[in-house]
Amino acid sequence: MNRMPWMPRHRRIAHAAGLVCAGLLWTAAPVQAQNDWRRTPVPVYTPGQLVAGLQGDGLAAAGRFARDSQALAEALRQRCSAVQSTSARPSSAPASALAAPRAAWLQATRSWERQSAVALGPLIEQQSLRQLDFQPTRPALIDKAVAARPRDGAALERIGTPAKGLPALEHLLWTRPVAAGTPECDYAVAIADELARAADGLRTAQATLAAPDVAARELDEAAQAQTLAAYAEWVNQWVGGLERLRWAQIGKPAASGRPTDFPRAASASTVASWAAHWATLRHMSVHDADGAPADGALVPFETQLRSKGLNPLADRLLQAVRAVDASLPAARPGAAARSAAAVRALGTLKHLAENEVATALNVTIGFSDADGD
């Protein structure tokens, strides 16, 4: 299959206009529920309707992450302002005292993983995966940053990305548990506040993408080009998200044989992390309800294929997704055979997505940051 080099989003707008063809600029039609949409023709969607549904879905996800990251910052602030008992050493951190910030971290991280599983728009432009979730965790750099004791925003800015974000907070909550009155606690609060500000910025940026008047935008030539670019980016990043889950998060750490290479190893939430990523990838892949998606909702690729009359391919996509459904829940760090089964199922889905589904949707798959060894 021919693959074109991956281009930044702002450079793809003009290129995406060249992807316009009879199969992509579909005729608009009212979106109404179908009683048996796998046998009855489904609504036909315009690119504008598809992208509007995607952006609305993205705004909801950004809102959840902003809310949960703010709750994490508040939980750490309360933990670090707690009065230590006179008998407790400042460096001690009983599990009960860490319960609330740990729970808040888990909630914020699951929201982040749901949002970032398919990195789009502001997540790409702001390099959020690197800025907020640099992996693997770098304990030595985190310890060095703690020792530096940054006193203000300018000092925090000078600290490198690998020492901040969600992995650094995981390290400070599980591997080197924070206690009130310590530099670790002060640093944890500072980077949690920074995370919350970044999450709020992503929510604001996502809100600017909302297009309430889809019909008007589809009559504007420049807006059409932007819509097609956003659609092509969606398909590409969905395929890239499948590969990131398949290899970077499951296959590669399993091959290394080092338990700490798995994502979220310190918090023992690796399996939950995989599930959160898969939930978003699956949500964009297939539609479980009998009726078509509601007007304005995200339209998954299975439904898009059916709207073009490509039911056999849609059935194969559904079958490949269900194979991942069957294998992924059994995958575990240290369970090589079960993890290998999930890797194979994700590989089959990715191959179908990039070689047949993307082609059917008139999108060329390019290289992304998910590609690699």
Automatic annotation (TrEMBL):
Residues 60-330 form the Imelysin-like domain. Its main location: other. Keywords: Signal. The keyword Lipid metabolism does not apply. It comes from the Bacteria. Gene3D superfamilies: M75 peptidase, HXXE motif (1.20.1420.20). It is found in: Cell envelope. The keyword Thylakoid does not apply. InterPro entries: Imelysin-like, Imelysin_sf. This is Imelysin family protein. It comes from Pseudaquabacterium rugosum.
